[in-house]
Amino acid sequence: MKRHRIAVIPGDGIGPEVVDVGVRVLDEVARADGDFAFDFEELPWGSAYFRETGRMMPDDALTVLRQFDAIYLGAVGSPDVPDHLTLWGLLLPIRQRFNQYVNLRPVKLFPGVVTPLRDKGPEDIDMVCVRENSEGEYAGVGGRVHVGFEHELALQTDVFTRKGVDQIARYAFDLARGRRKHLASITKSNASPFSYVLWDEVVAEVALEYPDVEVTSLLIDAAAAFFVTRPEMFDVVVASNLFGDILTDIGAVIQGSMGLAASANLNPDGGYPGMFEPVHGSAPDIAGKGIANPLGAVWAGALMLEDLGHPEAATRTMDALRAVLASGVVRTPDIGGQSGTSDVADALLDALRTRK
Ligand code: GGG
Q1: Full residue range of the structural domain in which residue 308 is found
Q2: Domain with 353 in it: what CATH number?
Q3: How far apart, in Å, are the Cα atoms of 257 and each of 74, 153, 251, 267, 332?
Q4: Which atom of ligand 1 is nearest to the CA of 138?
Q5: Which of 15, 260, 284, 344 is the most exposed place for a label (fewest CB within 10 A)?
Q6: Is the Cβ atom of 274 under 6 angstroms away from ligand 1?
Q7: Domain shared by 17 and 123, yes or no
Q8: H-type helices in 143-294, by residue range?
């Protein structure tokens, strides 16, 4: 039997609540399959660890994580720790150092879920966003000088490399080829004529190798508007780190809730574990109340199953998620219900067991 070692970082706020459900679902799916099993190891990193040690994770964290087959993350962020410390202390170093240059974020409206978009249904909202995940606006290049003086200066530099744009474009084109063969590439090249013009040029060069894929180039402001007014025009979307981050929050909302959105941080070249996480943050306003929606974390678990080579188990997980949403009986407050996180866990486990 194949055993997968998974590093679990529940993190902050609702992270532990949703990850707990994801782990139970993954264990059940593996048990039903019979050919593989998980060895989960929980790592107590995050804001509590920061309060004790001054760091979000230990010095050797990346060496530790590298030994696992995948990383399953809940959320990072706490009201009493500056957000840039939590993000740069844990999430972004893992993405960068493990060269997880793809952040894959599916956006799909499932039957039974209400979208805030008037006159739009599941047939209109079905896309995959490919966010460049290792450079761009989140490269971490910059600095501050003359701190506290009137002439204080802060520089935050976008970094776009030909290789970085080429590899994310190829990943997105390949994905589009397996779907409806349409790619929307998002920039702001009218206002930023260096980095985003390089992006546009590289995407156009790669497009020559994919004549079967139709490419549309959009400015971020137009794309944001079209996510709301014409979501049906999007199949695969490729965008820089910042633009992908923002667009996928819109994507999460139009698919019904931030709590439903999932993401996979991947290095398609191999050699490092992928990291799988719900898109949402730590949501301190509802943490500990037992009402967090765990479905984004569960969907992230399904993405992990695919990455680990278990597409059928991933499909079974998504079938259970779809069934729970379609029945409309058990749903957390963010999608219009009154159920708790544990009710959703029970409903998912029931769906998995009855569908075996
Ligand atoms: N689920 C992980 C989490 O807490 N994400 C919140 C966040 O701020 N993410 C920023 C990003 O995805 O770049």
Answers
A1: 1-100+261-356
A2: 3.40.718.10
A3: 17, 38, 9, 27, 10
A4: 13
A5: 284
A6: no
A7: no
A8: 162-177, 195-207, 220-229, 241-254
221 is catalytic: yes
Ligand 1 atom nearest to CA at 11: 4
121 and 234, same domain (yes or no): yes
From the candidates 174, 200, 249, 350, give the one annotated as an active-site residue: 249
Distance 281 CA to ligand 1 centre (A): 5
Nearest protein Cα to ligand 1, atom 9: 281
Total structural domains within the chain:
2
Q: What is the pLDDT of residue 224?
A: 98
Residue 331, CA distances (Å) to 225, 287, 293 in order: 29, 17, 8
* 204 in the same domain as 334: no
Domain termination site, one of 223, 255, 287: 255
Atom of ligand 1 nearest to the CA of 263: 1
What value does the mean pLDDT of the chain take? 97
Residues of the chain with pLDDT under 70: 355-356
Q: State pTM to two decimals.
A: 0.97
Residue owning the nearest CA to atom 5 of ligand 1: 281
Considering 12, 158, 235, 245, which one is annotated as catalytic? 245
Q: How far apart are CA 1 and CA 247, in angstroms?
A: 40
Q: Is position 138 annotated as part of the catalytic site?
A: yes
How does 232-244 read in b/e, with b if 16+ C-beta sit within 10 Å?
eebbbbbbbbbbb
- Cα angle value 173/178/184 (rounded, 5°): 40
93 CA distance to ligand 1 middle (Å): 12
Asked about 245 being catalytic, the answer comes back as yes
The verdict on 170 and 274 lying in the same domain is: no
Same domain, 342 and 310: yes
Please say which residue of 201, 223, 255 terminates a domain: 255
The ligand 1 atom nearest the CA atom of 282: 4
Q: Does 190 fall in a domain?
A: yes
Q: Is the dihedral of CA 250, 282, 4, 315 positive or negative?
A: negative
